Amino acid sequence: MKKITVLKTVLIMLAIMLVSCNDNYEPTPVAIKDVNGNYKAKQIVSQGNTGTERINEFTAKDSVITFKDFPVKEIVQAVVKNPVKVETALAEMGKIEYKLNYTSKLNLNNNTVELTFLPKSLNLKIPVDGTMKNTVVILAGKQKGYFVGQDWSLRFGVIAEKIMVDGAAISPFEIIKYDFPYCLKN
User: Fold this and answer.
1) Which residues of 117-145 are buried (b: 16+ CB within 10 A; e: fewer)?
2) Distance from first CA to last CA of the chain, Å, rounded?
3) Most exposed: 28, 44, 115, 182, by fewest CB within 10 Å?
4) Of the candidates 129, 156, 159, 128, which has an alpha carbon nearest to the alpha carbon of residue 144?
């Protein structure tokens, strides 16, 4: 008797759930200007088998994403090598601002704005033993980014594919990935 009562209860609950489902999903319309705003982002920086996660903030406005504190620790480690000197150099350098250019295109089928990145090189002066290492980081946007209308989030990534120090490329060098898988507007 208990089995039949439980079975009836489960079937009734299932019927209620099916009746209450709404198949009239209406996507939230997006516009290119919706990308503009201040974001709080999950940032994953990885190189080879190692990676770090943290929360970072940036602003998107008029086809430019501006980071007030772009992550450069892995870049400095590639140049300096000595862990103690890396921390000293990072402290002396302070926060690094970086502007990432993009073009945008509306994708009405997916209710998204597609971003194509046009990164400029990042020029750094890294202090090491009383001298400055002129460092140029070649960044690339290999994948499109997306502003998603459903949850008003932005998702993108770029890579550092080459580092030049005083005109010479660091070799061997393993690319550094900068992934921002989930960025929410503040």
Assistant:
1) bebeebebebbbeeeebebebebebeebb
2) 55
3) 28
4) 156
User: Containing H/E element for 125?
Assistant: strand 122-128
CB atoms within 10 A of CB 66: 14
Per-residue pLDDT of 39-96, as tens digits, reads 999 999 999 999 999 999 999 999 999 999 999 999 999 999 999 999 999 999 999 9
182 or 20: which carries more pLDDT confidence?
A: 182
Q: pTM of the prediction?
A: 0.83
Tell me: the pLDDT tens digits for 144-154? 999 998 889 99
Specify whether the CB–CB gap between 118 and 103 falls below 8 A.
yes
Q: What torsion, rounded to 10 degrees, do the Cα atoms 179, 181, 185, 186 define?
A: -70
Token pair belonging to 172 = 């061997």
Residue 155: the pLDDT is: 97
> Length of the chain, please?
186
Both tokens assigned to 82: 């000595």
Residue 74 contacts residue 100 (beta carbons within 8 Å): no
Domain residue limits, the chain: 31-185
Could you give the CA distance from residue 104 to residue 114 in angstroms, rounded to a whole number? Answer: 6
Please tell me what DSSP assigns to residue 18. Answer: H
